Amino acid sequence: MASRKMNVLVYSGNGSTIESVRHCLYTLRRLLSPNYAVIPVTEMVILKEPWTASCALLVFPGGADMGYCRSLNGEGNQRIDQYVRRGGAYLGFCAGGYYGTARCEFEIGNRMLEVVGPRELSFFPGACRGCAFKGFVYHSEAGAKAVELNVNKEAFKGGIVPQTFRSYYNGGGVFVDAGKYADKGVEILASYAGSLDVDGGVGAAAVIYCKVGEGGALLTGPHPEFAAVNLDVKSDGPDYPQLVKALEEDDSSRVNFLKACLAKLGLIISQETTSVPSLSRLHLSSLHHFLIPELLVSWENIITKQDGEEYIKGENDTFHLEKQDSRWSLNSLVKNLPVPGIVKEGDEHAADQRDDVGSDDRIVDYNAITKRLIPHETEWPGTKETPYFNHHSFYANLRKYQEERESEAEEFGKYLLYGEVVTSTNTMLEKNTKLLSCVPTGFTFTATTQVAGRGRGSNVWVSPAGSLIMSVYMKHPMELSNIAPVVFIQYLAAIAIVEGIQSYDRGYNDLPVKLKWPNDIYAQDPSKPGKKEYVKIGGILVNSSYSAGAYDLVVGIGLNTTNAAPTTSLNALLSTPAFSSLAPFIVEKLLARILTKFETIYKRFIRTGFDQKIEEIYYKNWLHTDQIVTLEAEGGVRARIKGITTNWGLLKAEELGWEDRPTGKMWELQSDSNSFDFFRGLLKRKV
Q1: Which of 87, 88, 267, 408 has the most CB atoms in a 10 Å sphere around its CB?
Q2: HSE-CB for 36 with a 13 A CA cutoff
Q3: Residues 446, 38 contacting (CB under 8 angstroms)
Q4: Residue 29: which H helix or E strand, with range?
């Protein structure tokens, strides 16, 4: 089995700057979504987690590379080097460029700034010498410039590549004598057009590509990832507005150059640049309309009034409760930003439902934006209000599944909060404890698109339009801990997803969907018929807190349903000959099916625990029976997976000795302390 690489990891640990990381995330997400998840990671991820198998690109942004050295010299750099040499890709901007060379020579002779010394990665066998242009000051725009770059178009295969363009620059170097290293796999992609303040040797190389084993590294001196729209014209110096204006004029050339660079590293570029989404209104409804006024009454203690308007001021977000008669009269509505990027003819109402947030396509602090919430007290939202989610279809299917003979479902999904574009359904519930304390068990939050979705550990689950995204609130009494430990909730959710998919309707029961310990959903890759290769299509994240004798749980689920990227989707499975006669999945119906399955299995669980019946269902659907793994945290011991313990949900692994014969020793591993790289058969200890 081979994992499809879908993560672009942006280093955000020691040495990086917040602004450089933000610019990286902004630009790379615009160019690579929805094919990749662009994720910030710290040095602990690089050092301790099995990131290499799923990483398509490792990015080191601007900052100070001595911080990178202090955190990653030795083991960290060995892992990075091995990753690249085995076919990975490295992209270093400015400080990340210095870091990827054999030697850093920064401001030699300047006692305040000088940094000189060898570097371990040595993707470029020469030195990076800077500053290429004088005037650099840490944490300042004083030395910033719009530098002109001459592009070596012959280094790129196809695509629209500019001859020249101006790029943001602040402290970067020149790759000394890069032109002399052609025989070692070094190509100059762009050169500084003007005279330099240091000796750059042959080539005046500003951007280079280095072939490294089976992979490659692309290093830059300037910052082609910085977009003019995210620069403040009021920053240092009277000439800064002219700098921003110059960058604005060349922005399309900058983007085309960066696209060509990413393609050279082997990445799939989005056909259309993804714009920064605007957050939408949130719609609160219920299976029974009368329950919404009752819920609002129960919120009286958390609602504050200001200038005649009602707000819930949570710990992380502020919610504005809109009045029914005022929501169409607001003059601040966006008219031109759809999901995921272009309003099609007839979609004007979709644009009307978004707030004027992020519409100027720049870096946005979503947490600072007031979220508008509309309670629907007499009827469900119509298609004009929520064109990407049919509430009537959802509630009709919820009622149908609740009425099945073996169903015990009656609470999950009864209250529904929906947003077309949201930050994160899990975050907006879990991080606003004041609101969370006032919602009933089974309260469900769903969305069409997330802009800040969260995954387990350092992971982020990509949530483009077409994913089923939901978070369910559950209050699990502490008194049930002996018979029904809370750790099993993630396993129940996984069962509910697989069972929900396979009981969606007649004919779906044989769909090749499996669960991976502890909380991922995989499907057989439909692009490789005849091969039993699995790719990730979903994930589960359970956040828990404790209050008043119970666990407050927010169970988040993301599942690729109709979208083909970034891996595959349920509807892609239906394109194979064995299932081509089945109707495509509908998100609203699948949401109702999973919720009712989840509630039914949960109610059995709190009565009987993780009993034999639930255990059989779990093992029937998981990927790991008798899989042999390496326990890296235990000195590389080989072990065979035997199941999970029924008391605390620990993974059982039978130690193997000579010729893989059992030694008699059994390991029990916690899901929150270990990271399972399924495709490489590694269990690593998480820190």
Answers
A1: 88
A2: 27
A3: no
A4: helix 18-32
> Which H or E run includes 669?
strand 662-669
Instruction: Find out whether 388 and 420 touch, Cβ atoms under 8 Å.
Output: yes
Nearest Cα neighbor of 59 from 90, 100, 86, 82 is 90
Token output for 43 = 């040095």
Phi, psi (degrees; rounded to nearest 5) at 119: -125, 140
Report the alpha-carbon distance of residue 366 to residue 317 in Å, rounded. Answer: 9
| CA atoms of 407 and 601, how far apart (whole Å) | 9
- Measured in degrees and rounded to the nearest 5, phi and psi for residue 471 equal -135, 135
Token digits of residue 388: 């990407």
In the chain, the N- to C-terminal Cα span, in Å, equals 27
Q: What are phi and psi of 359, to 5 degrees?
A: -75, -15
pLDDT value of residue 428: 93
H or E, element range at 651: strand 651-656
Q: Could you give the CA distance from residue 196 to residue 187 in angstroms, rounded to a whole number?
A: 20
- What letter represents residue 444's amino acid? T
How many Cβ atoms sit within 10 Å of the Cβ of residue 512? 16
**Residue 292 has which token pair?**
């919404």
Distance CA 467, CA 449 (A): 8
User: Measured between alpha carbons, how far is 645 from 158 in angstroms, rounded to an integer?
Assistant: 55
pLDDT digits (tens, 9 = 90+) for 32-74: 887 888 888 899 999 988 889 889 999 999 999 999 999 999 9
Give SS3 for 343. coil
Is residue 453 within 8 Å of 336, Cβ to Cβ?
A: no
Place of tokens 């800064």: 240
Give CA 265 to chain center in angstroms.
20
Q: How many CA atoms are closer than 13 Å to the CA of 286, on its beta-carbon side?
A: 19
Query: Residue type at 475?
Result: K
Do 559 and 570 form a contact (C-beta atoms < 8 A)?
A: yes
For the stretch 346-383, pLDDT in tens is 343 444 444 444 445 677 777 888 999 999 999 999 98
Which tokens is 109 given?
Answer: 């002779």
Would you state the structure tokens that stand for residue 227, as one six-digit string? Answer: 């977009």
Which pLDDT score is estimated for 624?
A: 82
pTM beyond 0.85? no
**CA distance linking residue 59 with residue 40, whole number of Å:** 9
Q: Residue 563's beta-bridge partner residues?
A: none
State CA 410 to chain mean position distance. Answer: 32
Residue 18: both structure tokens together: 């917040």
Do strands 682-685 and 628-631 pair parallel, antiparallel, or not at all (unpaired)?
parallel
Amino acid at 587: V
Backbone angles phi, psi at 214, to 5 degrees: -90, -5
CA 260-264-269 angle, to 5 degrees, is 55
The β-bridge relationship of strands 145-151 and 186-192 is antiparallel
Q: Which two tokens stand for residue 190?
A: 């762009």
> Cis link prior to 293 (omega < 30° from 0)?
no
CB hemisphere CA count around 14 (13 angstroms): 14
Tens-place pLDDT, residues 627-658: 888 887 677 788 888 888 888 888 888 888 88
